[in-house]
């Protein structure tokens, strides 16, 4: 028996030696907590979504620090330069990884004036705030009324920029907040992508007085449509609402229906403040007065049905006279039902063709070839105006303004 045990011991020793020589690994239990199967902490995404008790969903960096938008950046360029970036450091991770719920196509990169790169979201450059001491802080929102927490679901934003109006003849003029020629940065409302929003001065509370029932003029002043309204903290969400325009939903602010301008080609453009002349299509901000109630509008004094004889004359249903002379009273409201395709009907101060010298004070839809033009004659209207076809000098008549 002793011989057998000795033989087994020798054999075991030989096998062990051979195993070491051949590099065979013998598994041994790892100490508790050091097993190879333990998962490693995943690398955090560089842009995260956090739900904040006050602001709802907000964007943060990988460490949970809140990201911000700067209102003057509506054109997509950073206007936070010099000492500004000490308080508002640029956000630009070396690699971009996103939480679920964020779309990579909404992110981009710009090159700043100082040569550095910066990450953008929906065209807005992103920043951190130096006074956010801990992850989850939102101390920068509302700062200077121009810094706002970056959210993925804004439908309205705010900007501050020089107004540059473009009139009906294509002339561009720097305008002040009072729509006079001059240089001044004005704060005003945009959509989530930095596109300027406007009101029409002849609209009333919840009533769009511009858009034709067939939307034939919607390309010039498209109605602003959104399904959900999320706004920066500087606005009161209760001031926003909706109205129905021939079956379509249009967003309102303080009762004013909101529009885009078809002539604004790029985010940050605000050419509509000068079209067709300055002051007809203002911007909106917290200082915007509520839209007038509908019962404050004058009732229609008279409706004119306007047709045409080729390119030679306008006709009016109330008379057989071509291009008849009209008499309108200050303070009264008149409708012109226009059915003159190809012959835009303009109310003007001069009896010439083209789109210059239009009289737009109190006029809705001036220059329509089909649809309704409404004219509430203001107290300061001149004694003589004219209706003129944009293209044909023979299609014109005089309008006498009386008290």
Summarize the structure.
Helix content is 6%, strand content 29%. It has 403 residues and is mainly β. The protein folds into 3 domains: 48-151, no CATH class; 154-297, no CATH class; 298-402, Cupredoxins -  blue copper proteins (Immunoglobulin-like), CATH 2.60.40.420.
Calculate the mean pLDDT score and round it: 89
* CA-atom Rg in angstroms: 34 Å
Unreliable spans: 1-36
Give the number of DSSP strands: 22
Shape: elongated
Strand content: 25-35%
Q: Give the helix tally.
A: 2
Q: Describe the sheet with the most strands.
A: 5 strands, mixed
| Oligomeric state as shown | single chain
Topology, element by element:
Elements lengths: L1 H21 L25 E5 L3 E5 L7 E3 L13 H4 L19 E5 L5 E5 L2 E2 L21 E3 L6 E11 L5 E4 L9 E7 L48 E6 L2 E6 L2 E2 L42 E10 L3 E4 L9 E4 L3 E7 L5 E4 L14 E2 L5 E7 L7 E6 L6 E7 L1
Parallel strand pairs: 14-17, 16-22
Antiparallel strand pairs: 1-2, 3-7, 4-5, 5-6, 8-9, 8-10, 11-12, 12-13, 14-15, 17-20, 18-21, 19-20, 21-22
